Records
---
Amino acid sequence: MEQNSTMLGKIIEVSCSIKSALKGKNFDVTLKPYLTVEEKRLAAAGDPCRCMKQYFTSNEDLKQMLESSKDSAKLDAMKRIVGMIAKGKNASELFPAVVKNVASKNIEIKKLVYVYLMRYAEEQQDLALLSISTFQRALKDPNQLIRASALRVLSSIRVPIIVPIMMLAIKEASSDLSPYVRKNAAHAIQKLYSLDPEQKEMLIEVIEKLLKDRSTLVAGSVVMAFEEVCPDRIDLIHKNYRKLCNLLVDVEEWGQVVIIHMLTRYARTQFLSPWKVDEVVDEYSESNFYESDEEQKEKDQKLKTIYTMDPDHRLLLRNTKPLLQSRNAAVVMAVAQLYWHLAPKSEAGIVSKSLVRLLRSNREVQYIVLQNIATMSIQRKGMFEPYLKSFYVRSTDPTMIKTLKLEIMTNLANEANISTLLREFQTYVKSQDKQFAAATIQAIGRCATNITEVTDTCLNGLVCLLSNRDEIVVAESVVVIKKLLQTQPAHHGEIIKHMAKLLDNITVPVARASILWLIGEYCERVPKIAPDVLRKTAKSFTNEDDLVKLQILNLGAKLYLTNSKQTKLLTQYVLNLGKYDQSYDIRDRTRFIRQLIVPNEKSGALSKYAKKIFLAQKPAPLLESPFKDRDHFQLGTLSHTLNSRATGYLELSDWPEVAPDPSVRNVDVAESAKEWTGIPGKPKKEKPTEKFYSESEEEEDDSASTSSSGSGSASESEKEDEDEGSTDESSGSSSPSEESTDSESDSKESAAKKRCRAVNESDSQDIKKKAEGISIKRSTSSSSDTEYTSSDECSSDSKSDSESGKSRNATSNKVSKKEEKPAQDRKTPKTQDMFLLDLDDFCPVTTPVAVPTAAVLSPSLAADLEGLSLSSSSVIDVTMQVSVPTKTHELLHRMSGKGLAAHYHFSRQPGIFGDRMVPVQVTVTNTTDQKIENIHIGEKKLPPGMRMHEFNPIECLEPGGSITATMGIDFCDSTQTASFQLCTKDDHFSVNIQPPVGELLLPVTMSEKDFKKEQGMLTGMNETSTTIAVAPQNSTRLVIIERVVKAANLGVVPSGQDNIHRFAAKTMHSGSLMLVTVELKESSTAQLIINTEKTVIGSVLLRELKPVLSQG
Amino acid sequence: MAERAARPGPGTAEVFVRAPGAGLAAAALRARGAGPTGAGPVGGRGLCGEPARGFAPPQPGLAAAMIHSLFLINASGDIFLEKHWKSVVSRSVCDYFFEAQERASEAENVPPVIPTPHHYLLSVYRHKIFFVAVIQSEVPPLFVIEFLHRVVDTFQDYFGVCSEVIIKDNVVVVYEVLEEMLDNGFPLATESNILKELIKPPTILRTVVNTITGSTNVGDQLPTGQLSVVPWRRTGVKYTNNEAYFDVIEEIDAIIDKSGSTITAEIQGVIDACVKLTGMPDLTLSFMNPRLLDDVSFHPCVRFKRWESERILSFIPPDGNFRLLSYHVSAQNLVAIPVYVKHNISFRDSSSLGRFEITVGPKQTMGKTVEGVMVTSQMPKSVLNMTLTPSQGTHVFDPVTKLLSWDVGKINPQKLPSLKGSVSLQAGTSKPDENPTINLQFKIQQLAISGLKVNRLDMYGEKYKPFKGIKYMTKAGKFQVRT
């Protein structure tokens, strides 16, 4: 404490001295108002110098504090150091003291040390190496967030010596199970690349791998890395193109921007131009805005006769469209530029509404958006014409916004709206913001040249402005009038005369010069005035601006040629003045003119043509928008904003003449077959985002297929599918354990998927279901279910026929299924047998009573599976359960239930209600002699987080009858009780279900190697173990497996050793791995080890498994 | 800081190699200033560009990060915070910014994008602070600008207000937040729900506790947010009172011309929500007349397809305050203008006195009172002073900025508020050619001027009954009356 108070004193001291320094500075400023920015900066920088001495002492203090044993002192020191860094003060000398704390247990200190390290490691490379081992250790941490942050800091230390370590860490992290770690790996790629570009090849390999990643978390970051490291390797994108398109909606907003920009470039190299057709069919018309999708489609149909858009091209356009509704301006702009550069001209119009919406945003956003609209509006007026009023200027807008709006209004001007616009312009001309008023006058000039109907009106208006009191306005008008007159000089003698009179009052050089030029050019039209003007200006020649002097010379020369009698002497006088002018430009010009117009022996032939040279017909200046040729830069880029190439700008290529082979984007078979098994360890993390939109994806997919049906890719995919089917099969049969069931499960899996799909299509109303989202459907294995799916399959066949490439897996499996059908029929009874073995006293009740409609599979999973390679990631697959526990629990006793009895048991059919729901089969029996009607679930009292999927109400239960319904409960990985009410028509009974911990698991299969690897990551705190006595009769392999699996829903891991048995599962809700090892020792004991992140569940499970093996 | 800042000035190439001591930057700068002013400070800066960075990345363009550095600059041109995500960019790069700032008459006119020889400066101006991002290569400018705005929003969310003082007071939190928001210049965590879990926002209580216990605001538990089911909602939210409030706020943007007729008028609306609900609630919000909404943009939590097909907002809300939806009411609907302004402002050529008279009255208010009326007007430069008497409220005329503001308060339809008096002009100047425009602010409670009505709000997925509240309000947006 005391230390703190002394510190406080010091701080006050320092701040006082800063204050005094600041005072001094202010004093300076008031004394010297002309102080340059530079000097101000120096003055500001003065204060740290003055108190430098104090810094040294306080730095000593800081060092002491960092050495202290108390965390609070260290923390205080670190806070102050971060404060120093933030102010841009040097704190590098503290490096040795700070770096010692990198391994601090205190997470707060650690974070601040990281901040410090990232800032100074580059400068203190040798010392920075001391910290590396800490990070290397943290990279192996079981907690993904620690792994991620270690990688983040390690890769941010810009020390070249550790490049190999970084490379290794990135490689490792790129196949991490956690998508968050993989995301950080993608970020690290760029960092390493900028540190050492020589690593490029290796990094590209990692990028290639990460591009195949299915996680929405990773997608944005890896594309970013791709753009940074190897933007030219477009070939890496092919296979991932469709996946990226489909994922796009779910990627976080920043990633969306990057991906959209990259896909824009990609599409320009891969697809044919959709514009050629447009030129033939029609120009963009306003009606397109309001055209419904149907009409659009019809139109597309029409176009198809000439041009067929690649379905992948269409896919991109369709999947980006919803993003126009994003709250993020950058995303909207990205989509807008994509449509501008890729969409058929008739469709680009849909972006304008959203762009106009952005104009409500902050000034900076407005600025960029308006610039882009300006460029667009030049080429396609129609896009923004309906929004003309949105560009009206408010007096409170900043000048740069005003001028941009004006620019756009001018671009949009046409015969129909010009009168409204001119009225609006009149208000602007009077604006207090003179810069803006001048811009308005130019705008009027441009309208006048572009729309011939109003030229005269504009000209008159401008002439009126000549009597304006403000000089800038008048000057600008003169300049614009000059340009206008040049375009149609025929009958404007009056105006020229008027302007000649103005010459006495106007002082702005440009305006004076313009008037003089006009009089000179049309001197024959104003023969009386012109010589007089020359006389006046000759008098004031010496006081004029250079610009004006040149025009006086010019006027003199022209008059000399046309009216030499009156003006010869005047001209010579002017030329003499010019000869001795200070400016060499003027002297040059004078000499040049004299040689041309005054004939002498030397001048020769040229002077004969002097009149032709001076009084030649001059082309009228074109009044053009400054945004005229900005469109050669990709819209929405920095280069476009600056109108010059920015570093690292990637040119948008022209459309190819002939489309490159579209089949490169087809994902090959082997890969997807592999992924099939490879996925389930990962998708856990993908779900969050997926679930929100997948229904939309689904619908889109359907429409995609309809629009693209008949195109080449569909048939192709069909072919592939057959291949895939066979590989599926073969891979299934080659798997070492559970041969029959494995291949079975594969095919069933797909069938189940399809079923969900069909169901989902027909019934998309269920809100609850949507909320729960779409989950990955795992294979179901109860015999009744098999029947159900296979029958359902026929009905959905017709539907799936129309599915296109995206739902490939579904289709493929259909194909394989057809072939397999006879075989499957044979297999089905076999599976049944297997179950009957276990279900000794429990009769399998048919489940379809309560139709499990909620199980829905995102079709995007099919796509999910594409583009993910198995090569290095571990295979952890959710399997079907091996055993179904026989035990039933009482839910409601018939006495307390007034004759209604209910039992429940855990059916272990995964995924019926989404993969987080534990399926529970409830059997209700009517023991009364009356019918019981409307049995349903009433009010639920669930602990927070817990959710429940109710069974469908049972309308009527006959006396003595019993019926089984299935419900799902998400227990949130806890053994908390789910209480709810079981209601009948007249009564309601409170009941509750408490799950045994073994039922909160979902079995997974994995190889022994993976098991060991995972186990290695889950050590320490995450491991619980105990020694148990094993009854002798229990020591055989089969018995152990049977008992363990019965007690808990675990998957068996094939084991190489006889005395070690391994089981794996993951928790239902969070998907954390749960690894169980039973190691038999001598003298009927065994070591039971459980590794899991969920330590609570782990220890409960341990307690429950203990008696299972020890009992006889 | 500026170690090894090589400055290739004409004749004064100074290299600072890791001189010890704290005030290095200052030393460098002082040395520059103290040297012979041969090159001249301005010329030196302008011509020779920024100093080459000490540990320069291999090639410019290769080492691109989206956002390299961030400088916070106050109104008087002091850099009061800097943060670098990659190697350090010297402060002197901001000189280009200061130059532009000087050139622009007002802070608002500083261009948001400024190119320098090696970098590009993208800035936003909010709360009298310039947030200047330094970038090195091509990047969509809106990406950076939008991000900077998000940074400001986050600060505001954290500290209530975003001002220089607050940022300086909370520099450690600010630094930690910035560290989390960007990784290598690429946005990492920008959802405030997630950020707040990583770094706890300071509260008065926590500040007191922290000073006693000496802890910081870093969340001591690692957040699960990044990996939670819903990326924008933190897990394990618990409240004793479960409440969900929705504010439907509509703003009228209008330009009214001299004669009182409407030139353009449109309604922009937002629905701001404050949701404090336990667990993972799933809400649906439906409207009586969703067809009114012409163009909408959503918070990422809203399920787009559901809106497309049913015009229902279905979402799992983030915890706390957020903007659910912004919308635009279709242009076909005529906008009811709730107030009118009668004005009579005239300057005479001959005398240096002008007349000024405005009256504000209600027009189409659907029987509601118009409150919080505030009239502001930027007077022409030649106006010296104004002698005015309001029938109600208070008025101020600032002779320096020439801004007249009149805080009217409520409009009583029986006795319309008016402001009358004379304007004295600078002697000798001619009368201004344009009358000043009048900007109007007002509020009408319990009314959405477009007629939008929320039908119902339902919650799924949780057991409790939340308290639900919906409030409507109409405000003036950019409401201008030309005179």
---
Amino acid sequence: MLRGAAVRAALLRAVRGAPGRAGLGRAVPRAEEEEEEEEERQRGGRVPLYPGHIPTTPLQKALLAAGSACAALWDPYRHDMVAVLGETTGCLALPKLRDRMRNDPEGYRILQERPRIRLSTLDMARLGGLPDGTLGREYIRFLEDNKVSPDTRMPAKFVDDEELAYVIQRYREVHDLMHTLLGMPTNMLGELPRSVLPTDPSDGFWPIGIPDPRPREVHGEVSSIPVPAPLSSVICEVVVKWFEAVQTGLPMCVLGAAFGPVRLNARKLQVLATELLPWAVRSGRNASCVLNVYYEQRWEQSVESLREEIGIFPPPAVCV
Amino acid sequence: MAPTCKRRVSGKALANGSVGVIYQVFENVAEKYDVMNDSMSLGIHRVWKDILVHKMNPSPGTLLVDVAGGTGDIAFRFLNYVRSVRERQLQQKLRHHQNLSWQEISKSYQEEKSNPLGDSQVVVCDINKEMLKAGKKRAQHLGYSEGLSWVLGNAEELPFDDDKFDVYTIAFGIRNVTRIDLALQEAYRVLKPGGRFLCLEFSHVSNPLLSRLYDLYSFQVIPVLGEVIAGDWKSYQYLVESIRRFPPQEELKAMIEDAGFLKVDYQNLNSGIVAIHSGFKL
């Protein structure tokens, strides 16, 4: 990278010519050139490759990775630090992910067309009007229930390749869809999907897309089958992180997966370890690359059929 | 803490250093200003500011204007210093008058309670509302109420009359002023004859080894700290670059002399990482 800067500087000098000689460009005073080079070198020797890009030296990346890891552990709500950690540690995993996308026809199309999931590109009204159980409808429901918006994802800053920056951006924007596909909503207290839940809201949460085998209240008798209690948001995030870690291999996902369960109590840990995580890992291994799905063209597809196509096993019903 | 929505400042605009852009930079950094100062300088900035106030050696009754005083670091130190000097004065007075009646002694206690600062006052002036707000909050939190005023103003055009203040300080602020000569002229104008000008600012390190280590730390570590702690790489990149562009010790000394100050001198702290320039209006 420093070599690149030296080459570019040498070319510039050749084009500009030494002061006094007839060069191809204006003769620039040596001092100014040196100052510019000095500043460039200090900035990592590179120019920004895409809007929002901050070129960094390897030392800066290492410090950023360490600092953002500490900051994210200290304050789990610092989503920007999680994002920075992902960017600075993804230098090995991102090219592999990009190659997997290139080798798949749908993934290749995504890399060419560069679709973005943003409020300005989504037709929220149309998606909300789709039938229940379709990807579009459930995604909108997820966004509304959790009061999140696809625009809150940080743009990539420290990735030094324009295509890889898009890959990580796509991964971030697809994260919410992962929640939907895995049936892991993060908020149980909002409106629950009516089509797949028992009519009595006190029965709690049931994962999206699974037919509810529990008997409804008949003639005033209440079912004796233990009702699954709502899954906490931390558990949902951990499950999605494990799935993503297996799928993408990004160190940030692996770290999040490893450290996520740290603050959970024993009961929740048991549920995680015995049922949810094995399912997430199995699904992650079995499924094709989730970044290779052109979600924008599949809003009308039902969540179940999309799961089958990708290779995600139906989520288990758990008691917590 | 969720990252607040901050206006992004473009690198090119920062390099040109216009007033509006610098305003935005400090608007972004106001909340985390003190935390960042501590982490970037590893807490040493507190020692630098202590040394500045000790060099000032204010006596009770001094009227200080602290320009670009933002979050009030110098102002609070000034008030503490003056308060302790005043206490010592009153104690001295008591000790010298051994034959006071009880009434006179209790009157002097009341005097101490009613006028702990001895009529000293500090006016904190800053161009940025967010920094002043942060400073006021800090003052409340730390319990400073008397002798403190907060004024919104531009160092190049101070909203004060001529010949008003005994001491003028500007700590880590003159670097951000677009026209340093104007700020120095204003400083000369608002000081009383006999008044003192004090400037605490980053300066040039002449020792080559230290200079390289300092550069390495500045350019590699400080923007990273800015990103991790304040979520703002670009503002701290600007900070480091503005330090490099600032005139070195002798040049600043010449500029201060040009504004009319006499007996101008400077003191290097930490081999020139920071320098205190001092001048008198005589």
---
Amino acid sequence: MSNEKRTSADFFKQVFGRTVTVKLHNRTEYIGVLAALDGNMNLVLEQCEEYLEQKLINKYGQILLRGNNVLYISAKFNQKYQQEAGI
Amino acid sequence: MTTILPLGLLDKAISSRVWILMKDDREFEGTLRGFDDFFNMVLENVIELDNGKKSKLESILLNGTQICLIVPGGEIR
């Protein structure tokens, strides 16, 4: 893993088109393909599933999420890491 | 005596583990890869602690608005 500083702008570039998990402050999670992202963390997710407490509650073709609600945006780059993470 | 600014301290913590406490008793521990003026942070190999439940995340952009405390070199207990 490189040691260069990665700011949010770099994270954005890496994460476009990937499947991300977005967790909101109210603990709702959205898993979908990242179509758009701006500096306010406003997002457009496609083929998105909405989870509350690990339970699927909704599916959407496309959603616009307002950035003020976002706690974090999580991306999976390495399939193998996911399997080893367990928990 | 040299002045250390808060973001300067954070800059020194890059590439090391940091422990982050949020306003609502959530905790994150991860390797700090970068941050910005708003304390949005890029973290890797993250452990999230929420209501006693731990989960692992590979790489996240953490929203800075709810961050309360950052401990360089710290860990979730």
---
Amino acid sequence: MASLLSRFCRKLALPGSAHGSRMTSTTACGSETVKSLNLYSAINQALHIALETDPRSYVFGEDVGFGGVFRCTTGLAERFGKNRVFNTPLCEQGIVGFGIGLAAMGNRAVVEIQVADYIYPAFDQIVNEAAKFRYRSGNQFNCGGLTIRAPYGAVGHGGHYHSQSPEAFFCHVPGIKVVIPRSPREAKGLLLSSIRDPNPVVFFEPKWLYRQAVEEVPEHDYMIPLSQAEIIREGSDITLVGWGAQLTVMEQACLDAEKEGISCELIDLKTLLPWDKETVEASVKKTGRLLISHEAPITGGFGAEISATILERCFLKLEAPVSRVCGLDTPFPLVFEPFYMPTKNKASSSSSLSSPSKTHIF
Amino acid sequence: MAQHLKSSSKSILLNILRHNIGFSSPSHASRHLRHNLPHGPLTTRLSPNPITRYCNTMVDTLSSIGSHEDTNSQVMDFPGGKVAFTPEIHFISESNEERVPCYRVLDDNGQQLTNSQFVPVSKEIAVKMYSDMVTLQMMDNIFYEAQRQGRLSFYATAFGEEAINIASAAALSPDDVIFPQYREPGVLLWRGFTLQEFANQCFGNKSDYGKGRQMPVHYGSNKLNYFTVSATIATQLPNAVGAAYSLKMDEKDACAVTFFGDGGSSEGDFHAALNFAAVMEAPVLFICRNNGWAISTPTSDQFRSDGVVVKGRAYGIRSIRVDGNDALAMYSAVHEAREMAIREHRPILIEALTYRVGHHSTSDDSTRYRSADEIEWWNKARNPLSRFRTWVESNGWWSDEAESDLRSKIKKEMLEAIRVAEKTEKPNLNHMFSDVYDVPPLNLREQELLVRQAIKSHPQDYPSDVPL
């Protein structure tokens, strides 16, 4: 599985890389050295660059001092000092609240929530303070320098509290941005963009890919734009939309579908709020079918927003109902994880992707 | 030199708590205070009866841990440091025998107490302080009435808390950043926010710096270093700690100051903020306006500790309890606290005891849960304005004439401010969509077009005083 993922990520990287031509997602230019990095190393590199390029930037959260439980903050405290990279008490509302205060004074605060499942104590600070800081003050104040990083998603054995995908809660909050990278190279560029974006950003990192995904990552300072979706695989029969680790699953569904002669267009949304409706709309108007897939529970998941929007905009072009292949409406189970997850076969069997005789309802 | 709360220095500590203005470091305080600090002996209570100790009816203070010479003076290392052993089973009492005393300079009638220590205040500052307290009170009165007349949608007064508002502001520098709750407009007033600017925000007109987005009294001013009010309780506390850390890192001669009420001290953000402030060694002042009420909830339903001041120690924070209706005491306490915070990079907790004379807001009628007599008593007997006025006049710095001149001037200014604010048009519709992000994203640009179409189709659904 790991090697499959490695191959896949390098495969994913191709469309987005400098010589990948049709994509405009990279700002890399000239000669660039690349290095084979996994996701946590790519994120680590982004953090090093962020702290290096702005002396008024800070990284903090639980256990970040020694490198973090997922090693994303390795070497930062040694290099930039404990005044800029430090452990905080175990208190998410304090971490985010403190980060808002730092950002409000013009600093960049890159805070880490140890696992997205624990972000909820900070929800009030994020929704009522960070998201509204600029608006309520009439633009006298802002906390745009705030970036909240959190590992999210299934990991194989995480159960209720190490597997959640809470992105939908945050997509409902005007004033913040929600960004989810699919691979090491994407993560570095998107994280640097998020840190430097003048708005507070919640950045969910697919923890499944921290070690599993390996990719050639340019060593220099580069940014990938927010709110721009990327077509990572072109096709003509059906559009598939996803983000984060789920794209690796969807890519496999595409490969299987192609054996049946179905040409799939796969889109990485990257930024969920504000999301790039135009790219998805143009694609669906071309293909006539849409399948959305995410790990988070199907009811009220972000797939519902995409589905409703595309229905409004592309109704007359649609040849089939929009499919959503998602996690189930249960707390994330341990033993039952394989049954819960939106697998490639569930995607393949869904009404949009399969021929009528093989249709299942997922 | 910082005083750490080791058990060995508890005797010094107890003295200081009882005899001076309450901070645990005499060397700092004495530089500014008129009188030297007395030190007295401490009587240690040793219980001779093991059974009594087991029942814990005697020993009341935290500082008595490890104080008994009859225990083996063995010590053990744990993560976090050495602790002494005791073979006696002994629970720290849930409260001290005596409540933490309250620092004051003036008595109820505004007479300076004979042995009081305080930071001297010049005539200019004292007169400005008193004038601003009067202005605040009159502003509150007139806006409150305007709401009753239907000219304002909402208002919240700070009656009874004028000394907290003005005296704390007076003791700070303009570079100190303020994170208010919502009952501290006096800090803005002190710093130069005009009555017109207050009125503009209350009426949500196009001159409101907040661009008409929030309810009245949700003021903010980046020019005056006063972060915009948000109605959520205590959320500003951890924000203030982050801001304080920034000031420390930038080596500014400034601190962060945040206000909250007795109710706010129950919120999780209070605990998060105090703990962070102590660990991060952030120069932040936590000023609690303990005014006895959180809407209809009295403090007896809010906490069972000796108020808020005792919670500071739990987080390793130096704390003081002050008479919030005594302008000189507030001034001195905040002045001293600020110095310590900036010089020593530490947070300070100030509990200002006061009384919320007014209703919680114009949406509240507090006679439904407390007696009108109680309100009246506090308004008369402990009025911060009359107490301070007595002191100011005793120095020959104020008079009845000055008072009536001031009051008529403010009344005129207030009525004019309201007249102008009411007449001024509202902010343009496009300000509904600006500032959600730094630049409006596509979905907001689309929604603005949709709203404008809707207005064209059904103009009667929309207020006509919002320019398009």
